[in-house]
Design a protein that fits this description.
The complex is a heterodimer.
Chain A lengths: L7 E2 L13 E2 L6 E10 L6 E4 L4 H4 L3 E4 L3 E3 L2 E3 L2 E4 L4 E2 L8 E5 L2 E3 L2 E5 L3 E6 L5 E9 L2 E10 L5 E5 L7 E6 L2 E11 L4 E3 L5 E7 L2 E9 L3 E9 L4 E9 L2
Parallel strand pairs in A: 1-12, 2-9, 3-23, 10-13, 12-18
Antiparallel strand pairs in A: 3-20, 4-5, 6-7, 8-19, 8-21, 10-11, 13-16, 14-15, 14-17, 17-18, 21-22
Chain B lengths: L2 H11 L25 H11 L12 H4 L36 E2 L5 E2 L3 H10 L10 H7 L2 H11 L5 H13 L7 H6 L8 H11 L18 E2 L7 H5 L1 H13 L15 H4 L8 E2 L21 H9 L19 H12 L63 H12 L11 H4 L46 H10 L8 H8 L3 H11 L6 H12 L10 H6 L8 H11 L18 E2 L8 H4 L1 H13 L4 H5 L8 H4 L8 E2 L21 H9 L19 H13 L21
Antiparallel strand pairs in B: 1-2, 3-4, 5-6
The chains are: A mainly beta, B mainly alpha.
């Protein structure tokens, strides 16, 4: 079972003007927002798709595609976003890297800054043809799509979201490879762990809208008030459909 | 019995095998009966066998190279071929052909699968070179064939049925009552004394039995004899061309430099097989001169003398061949024995094939219910086909529905192995979770490509008269193969895909259950997929508007009711979106705005130009191609530029984005577009004009449009695909 811990919260350290509407200014005496995202009811079973090609690299039998990661009532791989923060802490310094290895996207959920350049690496000795889509309501729009036939090839591409927040990641050459990316407007984003918990630190004191987002289950909204050096707690529930 | 005949006679009478240095040779015996062909299929197959319209240019028939007057061969050393091609091997007799396990001189196909063997002949460029979709259309133009097929198969002429009928006929061409057979059954007078001597030599000193054994007088194996190569094959360009195409298709190494017919080697690529050919049956051999794979031995006497010398020269020559030391009388006896292998004549008189007849245009086989060929009514007449629930889904008579077929079609719909590189199943662009489309504005393509049009929903596609945005094909079956083989879609080679299906035991089992074939045929895969698609339809009880039409006034909101009135009146949508499908099956240009992806994505531009190439536009147009010209590609009429087929309006809730290029992501945008009178296009339909809708009226129209969608999205869970298994 893939560890949900292997999630990367990353974005580009760049000149402030690059992230539209967000300025980097060090936060002194910021507060913390923490909490838990739960899932009520029976989790949908993972999809299973037969691996029909490149078995020496991709493995054999059925590939499990977990869209809703529930463990003991906790929802992992959900994204929690604090909205409306125009100035705050810096983005994480590393350039995001999406790897294709063993015919899997690693990480399966990656948070990136909207408009950021990311690197896409093919670690496998077979062709991968990454195809990313911006999700717009019930529809989608290609962001980028290219083939990497050689092992070790890396190519950088920008995640230029226009209207949406979610990016679906697929491989045109392997129909059992699936992943997601979330395009963040500010660094005040967290991804829940296996136990559903999340923490967002260095929050400038204030009152904010907070959302828990899941690519398949939708969104839950709330409000938090963060005080200097204080800790605000909030939980979210996703009931089974 | 005289002393001369005693040993040989005893041996022959008891069917003993006594061969010098032989392994276990099978006793000579009469041929076992084959499973009987249905007589009505045989009659139809016989007509087709002699019909030249089963070749590409309607110039040759099966009988051209398998002539009943020439013992079902053609009497030539090397056969002729399709016009413009000459063949490089001898045409074998069809007599008893159904008994072989492997067919052709090189055994490259399964002899048991006669329909596929027939298909190979029909479609091979050097043989009959006909497109399997073309000749059934010819057959349909012949009322007698139409009637015969319906009588025999319960449906109209088709490729598969034709193959079965011809195979049924070929299966009846067997040899019976040869003097040898009568002799083996106890009639000692059936063989002359010389022939009896010949039999003894055959089984003894001459050693023929070692390869020519069993009821067929063939071990059905492959041996090299050192037969001299035919000067004609490499000396005549048309033959050499065919030879090369053939060797190339089989992937023979170094095919351009070959100056010998490498025989089975081309099939197996095993060096010991070089120069080996299948042992032909000796039944009726006296009738089927000239002999050998290249017809270089003209008479039986020459053949006997050839073996008497120990065959020819070849590094793979069978060790069974050695000089025999036969005297003149012995050679004569052998020939006489070989002549005793001639069965009763198999005579079939060719009947003159029935002729084409004109059909009333626009008519023909009655159209299945629910399909309308052209829109009715004009803006002035105001008479449009009524809106309402969809009727029963149309089902073509040559692809009836069954649960097992639908289930098989579902598997195939989800199976990436029905694409070139096993990456792109139907579901990749027709995803149930995206309203059975691709969910994007312009569809994805095959890996390394992008598509150039919006992927339409499969939902209710069964009701369209034609499929694709510009009506390129006329059936779901045709759409399936076009998409699976299309270069920017599935890009699959039909033969490769068929071979894959044949190594998935679950599919072999299912295809046999549904279609009765021993091995899956790729043409049946499209039928199964189409049958599955015919189940993807809106159910009236789940559509608010349909419930409204059926008498429940509360089924739609007041907003939607006002929207319906606008649809029929002020907004004028009914002029094109009419009938239960809400499409007139006609083509209109709206001036839909360009999608910027064609300026942004090189892959899209490649595909855009590629489409212009394959659709055959003048070069100047290809050079400036910057947009999708729609119906123009089919008609080449300037007035048809930019026209696309009116899509239906059901299930819109689930099928965004909209238009042929996905220009609009929301229905609100669509309504705004029509409100302003469409866009800019020289061919824009005169039916489009500014509507001057108020904000509330747009909301009402939107509510009506949404009422045409099922309450819940129609989904099918992905099946668990079956796996390959090694074939033994």
């Amino acid at each position: 079972m893939r560890t949900l811990g292997a999630l990367v919260l990353s974005a580009v350290l760049a000149a402030p003007s690059l992230a539209a509407g967000y300025d980097v200014a060090p936060v002194a005496g910021g507060g913390t927002v923490a909490g838990k995202v739960s899932f009520k009811g029976e989790a949908p079973k993972p999809k299973r798709m037969l691996i029909t090609k490149n078995k020496e690299v991709c493995g054999e039998g059925q590939r499990e595609i977990v869209e809703v990661a529930v463990k003991g009532g906790a929802l992992g791989n959900a994204v929690v976003v604090l909205d409306g923060i125009a100035r705050g802490k810096a983005w994480a310094p590393q350039k995001p890297l999406l790897d294709q290895k063993g015919c899997r996207f690693i990480p399966p959920l990656m948070v990136v800054r909207k408009g950021a350049d990311i690197d896409i690496l093919n670690s496998d000795p077979v062709l991968h043809n990454i195809h990313t889509y911006e999700i717009i309501g019930s529809a989608r729009r290609t962001l980028f799509n290219f083939g990497q036939p050689n092992q070790g090839q890396t190519l950088g591409k920008p995640v230029n979201l226009r209207r949406g927040e979610w990016v679906k990641v697929e491989c045109d050459a392997h129909d059992f490879m699936h992943a997601w990316m979330y395009g963040a407007a500010s660094p005040y984003v967290a991804v829940t762990g296996e136990d559903g918990s999340f923490t967002i630190g260095d929050v400038p004191p204030g009152k904010y809208k907070i959302r828990a987002l899941h690519p398949v289950l939708g969104a839950r909204e709330g409000e938090v008030t963060v005080t200097a050096k204080g800790k605000a707690e909030i939980s979210f529930d996703f009931p089974a459909r | 019995m005289g002393g001369r005949a005693s040993v040989g006679g005893l041996i022959a009478a008891f069917g003993f095998v006594l061969a010098v240095g032989a392994a276990r040779a099978e006793p000579l015996a009469p041929l076992p009966p084959l499973p009987a062909s249905p007589p009505e299929q045989v009659a139809l197959g016989r007509l087709l066998f002699f019909d030249t319209r089963l070749s590409g240019d309607a110039s040759i028939s099966c009988a051209s190279c398998h002539d009943p007057r020439k013992a079902w061969g053609d009497g030539k050393p090397l056969s002729t071929g399709y016009p413009g091609a000459e063949y490089f091997r001898n045409a074998q007799t069809l007599l008893n052909a159904a008994h072989y396990r492997r067919s052709y001189w090189d055994g490259r196909m399964d002899g048991r699968d006669l329909p596929t063997l027939v298909r190979d002949h029909l479609t091979e460029p050097a043989l009959m070179q006909v497109d399997g979709r073309l000749f059934p259309e010819r057959l349909k133009q012949v009322p007698e064939y139409d009637a015969m097929f319906r009588r025999v198969f319960g449906g109209e002429p088709s490729f598969g049925r034709s193959l079965n009928a011809i195979a049924a006929f070929v299966r009846t061409l067997t040899s019976r009552g040869a003097p040898l057979d009568r002799y083996l059954e106890g009639d000692t007078a059936a063989l002359s004394p010389a022939a009896r001597d010949g039999l003894a030599l055959f089984q003894g000193k001459a050693g023929c039995l070692r390869c020519h054994d069993g009821p067929l007088l063939s071990d059905q194996k492959f041996h090299a004899l050192g037969v001299q190569d035919s000067a004609a094959v490499f000396g005549e360009p048309l033959r050499h061309i065919t030879f090369r195409w053939f060797m190339k298709t089989l992937g023979t190494p170094n095919y351009t430099n070959l100056r010998e017919d490498v025989g089975r080697y081309a099939v197996t690529k095993e060096p010991p097989d070089r120069g080996r050919f299948r042992t032909p049956s000796l039944r009726d051999v006296a009738l089927t001169a000239p002999y050998m794979h290249n017809g270089t031995l003209a008479t039986l006497e020459e053949v006997v003398e050839f073996y008497n010398r120990g065959g020819g020269i070849h590094r793979n020559k069978s060790p069974l061949l050695a000089p025999l030391g036969l005297g003149a009388a012995e050679k004569k006896a052998l020939v006489e024995f070989l002549e005793a292998l001639t069965g009763e004549p198999v005579v079939v008189d060719p009947l003159a094939p029935p002729e084409y007849k004109l059909r009333a245009l626009g008519k023909g086989s009655p159209a299945p219910a629910g399909l309308v060929a052209a829109s009715t009514g004009t803006a002035q007449s105001g008479k449009f086909r009524a809106l309402g629930p969809l009727g029963p889904v149309p089902v073509p008579r040559d692809n009836p529905m069954s649960d097992a077929k639908v289930e098989l079609g579902k598997f195939l719909f989800f199976d990436p192995r029905l694409s070139g590189d096993v990456s792109t199943p139907c579901v990749a662009c027709h995803n149930p979770e995206a309203g059975w489309g691709d969910g994007s504005d312009v569809s994805r393509g095959y890996p390394g490509t992008q598509h150039w049009r919006n992927s339409q929903t499969v939902l209710n596609a069964a009701y369209y008269f034609k499929l694709f945005w510009a009506g390129e094909v006329t059936s779901l079956e045709a759409q399936a193969v076009a998409a699976a083989t299309g270069n920017v879609a599935g890009n699959g080679d039909p033969m490769m895909m068929e071979e894959r299906l044949r190594q998935i035991p679950e599919y072999v089992r299912r295809f046999k259950a549904v279609f009765g074939t021993e091995q899956p045929r790729i043409m049946d895969a499209w039928k199964a997929i189409a049958a599955f698609e015919r189940t993807l339809v809106s159910k009236p009880e789940q559509v608010p508007f349909d419930r409204f039409v059926k008498g429940d006034p509360k089924a739609i909101t007041d907003e939607a009711r006002r929207g319906l009135a606008l649809f029929l009146g002020k907004a004028g949508c009914i002029q094109c979106h009419n009938g239960p499908l809400l499409s007139d099956d006609d083509y209109h240009a709206l001036g839909v705005p360009k999608n910027p992806v064609f300026e942004e994505d090189p892959l899209r531009q490649i595909t855009l130009r590629f489409q212009h190439v394959i659709r055959g536009v003048p070069e100047e147009l290809y050079r400036v191609a910057d947009r999708d010209l729609g119906l123009y590609y089919t008609t080449k009429r300037e007035a048809d530029r930019g026209k696309f087929r009116t899509p239906g309006l059901r299930e819109l809730k689930y099928t965004a984005p909209y238009m042929h290029n996905g220009a609009f992501f929301t229905l609100e945008e669509v309504l705004d577009f029509y409100d302003q009178g469409g866009g800019n296009d020289a061919n824009k339909s005169p039916l489009l004009r500014p509507l001057k809708l108020t904000a509330q009226e747009k909301k009402d129209l939107l509510a009506f449009l949404l009422s045409l969608s099922s309450d819940q999205p129609i989904v099918v869970p992905a099946p668990q695909l079956p796996e390959y298994a090694v074939v033994k």
